[in-house]
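Protocol step 4 of 5: obtain the predicted structure for the target chain.
Materials: sequence only (see below). No template structures provided, no constraints applied. The aim of this step is simply to have a reference model before the mutagenesis design in step 5. Sequence pasted as it appears in the construct record:
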Amino acid sequence: MVGALGVALLCSAGLSAPAQAQARAQASDPERETASARPLVDDGLALTPPMGFNNWNSTHCRAEFDEEMVKSIADIFVEKGLKDAGYEYVNLDDCWALPQRNADGKLVPDPVRFPNGIKAVADYVHAKGLKFGIYTSAGTKTCNSAGFPGGLGHEESDAQQFADWGVDYLKYDNCNNQGVDAKQRYIKMRDALRAAAETTGRPIVYSICEWGQNKPWEWAADVGHLWRTTGDISDNWGSMLGIMKQNLPLAPYAGPGRWNDPDMLEVGNGGMTDTEYRTHFSMWSIMAAPLLIGSDLREATDATYEILGNEEVIAVDQDPLGKQGEVVSSEGGRWVVSKEMKDGSRAVALFNESSSAQRIATTAEAVGLPESDAYSVRDLWQHKSYNSAGTLSATVPAHGTVMLRVAADGKWAQYPPAVETAVEGGQFVQAGAATALTTKVTDLGRTPALKASVALSGPSGWTVRATSATSAVVLPTGKSLSTGWQVKAPAGAAPGAYDLTLRTSYRSPTGTRVAATLPLTVRVVVAPPSGTTALSSLDWLSAANGWGPAEKDTSNGESAAGDGTPITINGTVFAKGLGVHAESAVEYYLGGKCSTLTTQVGVDDEEGTEGSVAFEVWADGVKAASTGVLTNADAAQALTADVSGAEVVRLVVTDGGDGVTSDHGDWAGPELTCS
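Step 4 output (structure tokens):
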């Protein structure tokens, strides 16, 4: 497709082959296929994934969470067109109540936060044509340390109170559960909600927030309408990525009225780039996940509204067939996910997990479409349509996603041919030295691309010169215009990322002109010094982390930067190293100068007896070393990787197989030996 581009770098794979095979086997089960077409909780609720707002990700329990905020969100839903786009639930999270019930055992709204009570807020939301949601926990108290009352042992009373207030949606958390069986606790509230609905005529969407600890996808389809599959999300790339990977294999369990919930959206909260937020929104939509906005819309940027309001992507999430997208491939962090749509088309996500641009390719046949002379291809972020002879391909920016809707509908001839722009080489440049790269413009369409041309420019002070032809009279199907370029950063250019601009243009046989202006990110880099160097003394190329930022020479700590403690594994303290949290990936530029990476690895003591992780070292996309699963019971393990000739080394920490909670991993004393 004509789309964003950059330069390719292989990285670690996504789903394991066994996980993909299991998901495909489950998805092809005829009984499961039949079941997916109907809800098991047959009450007409949540036949598509719920869409709305929840305050927790943006406010937590801070004072700005109050009646004024909630009403403002309802107003914004209407004023900004979010209601028309499908968002309907305005939900409260924790901290809305007083810490103590009243003498009758009833929940009491906080009179400071909600001076007019909960029913008044629900009435305000309903008056806007929206629905209202609330929160409690399937325990004696909720999750906040202030100790707000939970629903355990009060299910009938609380459910009736919620229904009387006009609640339409309940998020039921899992804290302070006293060890009571999860199924028992969540079924008890289900029955209470049903009883309250019978007396009030108000059915309530039931969101089971059990964190995936007891595999609710296996038992909750006749208990609630959606169930959390993971721990809490946080506003960073590593957290979002790890949660996505846990949720993707569960596609066979989703369907109308029963959804896998990978937690609320972080779009707009500031911890990721807009490119990463588009990926977040795209992948949640292709996974048929609930779309609950988690940012304070009173302060949202235009870019945030553009992402949240993309009705073509929302239509993928809300498709009435109710299928969750399935992984077609994920090698090297180049993901292809396909979702069957009710009209027979396929939504396709080309997602790039890595920190450099990647060419990601598949075919219409591979994503489940029948054989056809050509296909209509709609780019859901560009809002443009093309024709394809069958190849679906794009060079996707780092952490980006190209989202397509592909159909064998016979309408393809009215659209211009799809043209892919790819880049080979040139992702790393040395200040003052010329670097070669090649751009390739390829016609993927059934019809020819006419008068194709390409131009490349750089920042002020950079020299960019073509070394071969920059135009072609015609590009038939499958043919390319390859152009060589010489790029030179000025002497003294500081290390870091720089954007070049690539412009392409062509015409369809009917005369339609197609033009695109695309950023190409290159990095000015400095190779490590000769000898043995502590890795933590070097600047990394990128660092993705599952909880807060990756830390140098301390443990991961909590979510804030610089809040770690000395790196400690099974009682042994290390002065140097990297403290991370799964899922994590840290990359360093080696420039082909280094031979060996040595390190100790293990789970940091700061999480007590919790945490299990595995460590991997990748050299230019090839796994150079790895461990098995390590826990807090294990001493630091030595790990040595041959990185001879590699341009980039990637240090990966993955979940040990039991979820990412408390997965604090340490690269203790890592050193590079270079020439």
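Step 4 remarks: The first strand starts at residue 51 and ends at 54. The CA atoms of residues 211 and 397 lie 31 Å apart.
Proceed to step 5.
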